[in-house]
Specification:
With about 200 residues, the chain is of the alpha+beta class. It folds into two domains: about 40 residues; about 140 residues, Cupredoxins -  blue copper proteins (Immunoglobulin-like, Sandwich), CATH 2.60.40.420. About 15% of the residues lie in helices and about 30% in strands. The protein has two helices and eleven strands; from the N terminus they run αβββββββββββα. Strands 1, 2, 3, 4, 6 and 9 form a six-stranded mixed sheet that branches. It has a five-stranded mixed sheet with strand order 5-11-10-7-8, with no helix packed on it. The chain is elongated and about 80 Å long. The model has no long low-confidence stretch (mean pLDDT about 80).
Length: about 200
C-alpha cells in the first residue's frame, strides 16, 4: 500500500517569485526629486493664478463669435457698415468695431465716445484689410482684429476718465507702417449724474 505524498503547504496570498522580483527598488536622485516638486508647485501656482485672474479681475480669453467676409463689411446689412453704440439693456451696451488702416470705426479721437460710469460694453471686433490690434488701456480688453473673424470681449467701465483705444499690432497694407501711430480712438467715461451734481455744488 503506497503512502500518501505530502506536498508543501501553498500560500495563495503570497506572490510567487518571478523575474520582476529581481528588479531593484526605484530610486530618485534628490536633485531630480526637488525639480519634480518645484514643477508640481509651479503648475499649481499657475492654475491658481488663472482662476484668480478670471474670478477676481475679470480677465478673459477673447471669444470668436463668428465669421464674416471682409468684402461684405460695408454692405447695408452688415453691422460693421455704420457701427454705433447701442444700449441693449439698462447700463449694458454693444459696439461693433471695424478696424482698417488706420482707424477704428466708430471710435474717432476727434469725436470721442461718451458713456456713463458703470456701463458694460460688449465689443464685436473685426478687420477690413489686414491684421490689427485692439487694446483699451486700463481695461481687460486686448484682442486681435482679424479679417474674416469676429472677436468678442466684454468689459465694465467703473471708473470715470479717458480710455485710449490703441492698435498694438504694426499694421500696414503690405507697405510701411507710417500711419500706425495715428490708429487710435477715445472713450470717455462720464461720472454718474449724482456725483457730477455734488462736484458742482
Amino acid at each position: 500500500m503506497s503512502e500518501p505524498v505530502h506536498h508543501p503547504e501553498e500560500h495563495p496570498h503570497e506572490p510567487s517569485p518571478g523575474p520582476e522580483s529581481n528588479l531593484p527598488d526605484l530610486h530618485i536622485d534628490r536633485y531630480e526629486a526637488a525639480w519634480i516638486r518645484i514643477t508640481v508647485i509651479t503648475v499649481v501656482v499657475f492654475a491658481l493664478a488663472v482662476v484668480t485672474a478670471t474670478a477676481s479681475y475679470g480677465i478673459q480669453v477673447p471669444g470668436v463669435t463668428g465669421r464674416i467676409d471682409p468684402r461684405t463689411l460695408m454692405e447695408p446689412s452688415s453691422p460693421f457698415a455704420a457701427p454705433q453704440l447701442r444700449e441693449i439693456a439698462p447700463g449694458k451696451y454693444e459696439l461693433y468695431v471695424r478696424a482698417q488702416v488706420w482707424s477704428f470705426a466708430p471710435l474717432d479721437p476727434f469725436n470721442p465716445l461718451h458713456i456713463p460710469a458703470g456701463s458694460q460694453i460688449t465689443f464685436y471686433v473685426t478687420a477690413m484689410d489686414v491684421l490689427h490690434g485692439f487694446k483699451i488701456a486700463g481695461t481687460n480688453v486686448n484682442v486681435m482684429a482679424l479679417p474674416g473673424q469676429i472677436s468678442r470681449v466684454t468689459t465694465t467701465f467703473d471708473q470715470p476718465g479717458v480710455y485710449n483705444v490703441i492698435c498694438h499690432e504694426y499694421c500696414g497694407a503690405g507697405g510701411p507702417t507710417i500711419g500706425h501711430h495715428t490708429m487710435y480712438g477715445v472713450i470717455i467715461v462720464d461720472p454718474p449724474p449724482a456725483a457730477e451734481a455734488s462736484a458742482q455744488s
